[in-house]
Amino acid sequence: MMNILPLGLALLDGGGQCVRTNAVFDETVGTDCTTGDGILALAVKDDRAQLARAIVQVLDGTRDGKEVRLRLAARPDETVVVTLAPAPGNWGFAALIAVRDIREQVRLEQQVAQATKMQAVGQLAGGIAHDFNNILTAILGLCDQLLDRHPEGTPDFDDIDQVRQNGNRAANLVRQLLAFARQQTLRPQVLDVAGVIDGLQPLLSRLIGPDVELIVRNHGGAGAVRADPGQLEQVLVNLSVNARDAMAAKGRLTIATRGILAADVPALGHRIIPTIDLVAITVSDTGTGIPPEIAAKIFEPFFTTKPVGQGTGLGLSTVYGIVKQTGGFVFAEPVAEGGTCFVVYLPASEAPPAAPAAQSALKRPELIGTVLLVEDDRAVRLVVERALRRHGLGVIAVEDPTVALEMIEQDETLIDLLVSDVVMPGMDGVDLVRRARARCPTLPVVLMSGYAEPPQRRALVRAGVVFLPKPFAVDDLLDAVHAALAAVPLDMTLLSSIGD
Fold it and tell me: Above 90 in pLDDT, residue 117?
């Protein structure tokens, strides 16, 4: 009768000896518990003490039942739940043990714990990055202004240039943190993945070195995706550099693309991927591979196996953040012949790829008019105000968005352009834009973003708002100002619901 039950069962006598097991128990445990060390033999040595205590408590009546988690001696990497219960005196045995396989439950618990940890670290990283972006905006802006007065050849040029270079290095680290936290500013457009990889080949060849063979396999019809071209290139560069380091700069790096139909998604074996058309990018190497004990940590920020001073631990976490913010998925898979294969799945786009933007050889037109600058950080406000004034614009600088709104409501002809931060106390930049445009529908706007762009970004862009991510150089600021002054608001009705 016991053998037809789908649950692993064992019977104990009054002395705690195993007198009988069923077939499911033997198959699950993988150890003969009727001889030698008896029932204790099912667990690894470190877990046998708690199993022995549980048996004693059930047999002497201290507990009516007991449940413990144990690692199997036959397969120490597997955990099972062992439930013990006393048996009535007339059943012919003293206690019953049931073994339940909880590998799937443990796997799900680990995934939830990992996801929760990644989310918490991402929120922390994003908050730190926001504050650092304001600091770096001020530092880099002041460096640009000092270099205008101290050109190359002057005594102070080298020192100022060093400050700027280190500021840019810090800005790159902050961008990586924001990428992991999925809070960086993106400029998505429809891209032909094969074209992006082909255009990146010369750079990748230089990065991986002459001793690494680069193979690119762009399967026909892989398709297009909607992504930020610079961020997609960053994903490919980070994965390629990571592969180079894993191969000790000698081996073979293969990058391949292919299209995946929605009907074929379940066969991929990743249940979290929705059944939609995908474009897959694989980056595989012939390196040392990823040890199983660290596989769950590779996408965590600051985790690295490289020696001190040879890695920040942000390469793969940046890849993870960019892919997730783009709506995709990334997995690391071992390669049978050695090495690692990273697979990036991105939603396929039905729209055709965007045509390359033509480079204009014309100089920027002269800036004229008055700018209302709204920024609560004093250092950033001073740097932006000084830069705008040096390029011919009048500037009214305020730190309180409420004061700025009152100025616009009193006289909508007072200003020609609104430049505002997004995250401010009291009233954020999005709400300020909505209220300002209600009074002055054609007001050009630049929103400076030191954090994530708001979820209303698409509606704002269609309404002619230009986003400027922090930290930025003076040239970036001027480009944004020109773009805002040249933009034509296309759908002003969208702003009536923004910020509500």
Answer: no
Starting from the edge strand earliest in sequence, which strands make up the sheet with 66-71, in order? Answer: 18-21, 8-12, 95-101, 79-86, 66-71
For residue 493, the 8-state DSSP code is G
Using only the alpha carbons of the chain, give its radius of gyration. Answer: 31
Measure the CA–CA gap between 94 and 185, rounded to whole angstroms: 66
Among 310, 300, 221, smallest CA distance to 261 is for 221
pTM over 0.85: no
CA-to-CA dists, residue 238 to 216, 251, 322, 347, 350, angstroms: 16, 17, 11, 21, 27
Length of the chain: 500
pLDDT at 493: 46
Looking at per-residue pLDDT, the higher value among 303 and 333 belongs to 333
Average pLDDT over residues 201-223: 85
Rounded-to-integer distance, Cα 29 and Cα 35, Å: 14
CA gap 321, 116 in Å, rounded: 15
Residue 1: per-residue pLDDT? 62
Q: What are the backbone angles phi and psi of residue 117, rounded to the nearest 5°? A: -65, -45
Q: Which residue has the tokens 């205008």?
A: 148
The CA distance from 96 to 55, in Å, is 10
